[in-house]
Specification:
Blueprint (H helix, E strand, L loop, with lengths): L1 H27 L6 H9 L12 H7 L1
Length: 63
């Protein structure tokens, strides 16, 4: 039981740390200016945010 709890904590901790690193990179590169803008970008509400979820051939068609 302890091993399962430790693995779950490890997975949750790694996920949160990768999210924090990604968010920090988006702020430092100037891709987003606020946390609300980051949420809108990831949910596809900002123009250009939807291209992150397109396949390569769909990107060519969109251009």
């Amino acid at each position: 039981m302890k091993k399962i709890a430790l693995v779950l904590l490890l997975v949750i901790g790694m996920t949160l740390s990768f999210l924090a690193i990604g968010l920090m990179i988006m702020f430092t590169t100037g891709a987003v200016k606020s946390i609300d803008e980051a949420k809108q970008l990831l949910s596809g509400q900002l123009p250009g945010g939807e291209s992150a979820y397109l396949k390569p051939d769909e990107v060519v068609q969109a251009q």
